[in-house]
Automatic annotation (TrEMBL):
The keyword Coiled coil does not apply. It comes from Mangrovactinospora gilvigrisea. GO terms for cellular component: plasma membrane. Belongs to the succinate dehydrogenase/fumarate reductase iron-sulfur protein family. GO terms for biological process: respiratory electron transport chain; tricarboxylic acid cycle. Pathway: Carbohydrate metabolism; tricarboxylic acid cycle. Keywords: 2Fe-2S, 4Fe-4S, Iron, Iron-sulfur, Metal-binding, Oxidoreductase. GO terms for molecular function: 2 iron, 2 sulfur cluster binding; 4 iron, 4 sulfur cluster binding; electron transfer activity; metal ion binding; oxidoreductase activity. It holds the Pfam family Fer4_8. Gene3D superfamilies: 3.10.20.30, Alpha-helical ferredoxin (1.10.1060.10). Its cofactor is [2Fe-2S] cluster; [3Fe-4S] cluster; [4Fe-4S] cluster. This is Succinate dehydrogenase/fumarate reductase iron-sulfur subunit. Residues 5-92 form the 2Fe-2S ferredoxin-type domain. InterPro entries: 2Fe-2S_ferredoxin-like_sf, 2Fe-2S_ferredoxin-type, 2Fe2S_fd_BS, 4Fe4S_Fe-S-bd, Beta-grasp_dom_sf, Helical_ferredxn, SDH/FRD_Iron-Sulfur, Succ_DH/fum_Rdtase_Fe-S.
Amino acid sequence: MSYQARFRVWRGDEAGGELTDYEVEVNEGEVVLDIVHRLQATQTPDLAVRWNCKAGKCGSCSAEVNGRPRLMCMTRMSTFSPEETVTITPMRTFPVIKDLVTDVSFNYEKAREIPSFQPPEGVAAGEYRMAQEDVQRSQEFRKCIECFLCQNTCHVVRDHEENKAAFAGPRFLMRQAELEMHPLDARKRRAEEAQEEHGLGYCNITKCCTEVCPEHIHITDNALIPLKERAVDRKYDPLVWLGSKIRRRTG
Ligand code: SF4
Ligand code: SF4
Ligand code: FES
């Protein structure tokens, strides 16, 4: 079944822009990205859109469809009724470059601020051993395709540009959690670093990041809450407190 659907697409650049109306053919089985491509091919050859795999795996085609952050290649047109106007806008949290393409370098800067895995001393590469349970725990976090929809959705930065300097965002706090839970990581203060240097305290566990994750990663329940618990447990555990005092005195 084919039909003509109404689309409203944000057109513009960093100086400003507006929503523009189009009518585009929709065919059975198509996704929003198919429509954007048809729009480019038939009416707006200069429409800017970022995409790569069209299979939900590269994380490039993130945008907001009817106000909801989504991957355009994984949003079926059958989600909407033929009478509905489908509005496509760029991710709101990042600066617009052109049309649906945003500058996501905020995320790369945050990624660079997190120290990488620190190998354990005295264990040669190839001799690392981990329990299967520990492997599985980090496996969930490693499904991340870096679409940055969670970063775009988190209210801490979505409407508060001023928080961006201090807050790494759910994707990169999750990376901290992954390393904190890694039994071989020799860097021992990941949770405290997340709290003190990467803004973990800004997160009030609303779970909005989890709701938009196309990989269905339980970002809040499995990464952010355990990270908060570890930071608090170690800070208020009397034995840990005493140990740190002794270390400071003998140091
Ligand atoms: S759970 Fe935390 S990181 Fe996720 S959207 Fe809410 S405040 Fe942001
Ligand atoms: S955690 Fe999920 S929403 Fe966030 S960047 Fe990774 S895949 Fe995207
Ligand atoms: S084009 Fe790769 S995730 Fe959509």
